[in-house]
Amino acid sequence: MHVIKKLSLAAALVGLFSTSYAQIEVAHLSSKGFSSSSGLGPGIGFGGFLNVAIPIDDNNAGIVEGAGYVFSNSDSHVLLVPAMVGFRHLLSGYNDYGFYAEPVAGYTFGATDIQAYDANGQALYK
Fold first, then answer.
1. Cβ partners under 8 Å of residue 19, min gap 6
2. CA distances from 14 to 8, 11, 34, 68 (A)
3. What is the DSSP letter of 74?
């Protein structure tokens, strides 16, 4: 890339991240005998989360949320991708801050390579 393009990209990223409210999230998964181990301790996974509010008026906004989490141990992996939509209503009369109600509804998509077994302990193949 040319220097101008690199500087423009850097300026755009600084502008984007300076207006976002970043947080750190720690996810834990323990389900049906599966517990991931990533070096940080049992059951800790990695992922990212994004919540976007689309303004409707001064006190209301539509919400779109999405995330992706990966959990793994030595021989198995689990991927979870929750997707949600909702509505945010600011309870105070101020436009920028205050308490709000935010009901959301969604669905979590998941995938794993954990082998399933029948009652006799034989591996099930699909």
1. none
2. 10, 5, 40, 24
3. S
CA 48 – CA 38 distance, rounded (Å): 16
Angle at 42 between CA 36 and CA 126, to 5 degrees: 15
pTM, rounded to two decimals: 0.62
Residues in Cβ contact with 78 at an 8 Å cutoff, skipping those fewer than 6 apart: 29, 31, 34, 36, 45, 70, 71, 72, 110, 111, 112, 114
Tens of pLDDT, residue by residue over 51-88, are 888 989 888 899 999 988 888 776 777 888 999 999 99
Three-state SS for 98? Answer: coil
Question: Around Cβ 114, how many Cβ atoms within 10 Å?
Answer: 14
| CA-closest candidate to residue 107, choices 76, 72, 53, 65 | 65
C-alpha 7 chain-centroid distance:
30
What span, in angstroms and rounded, lies between the C-alpha atoms of 29 and 69? 10
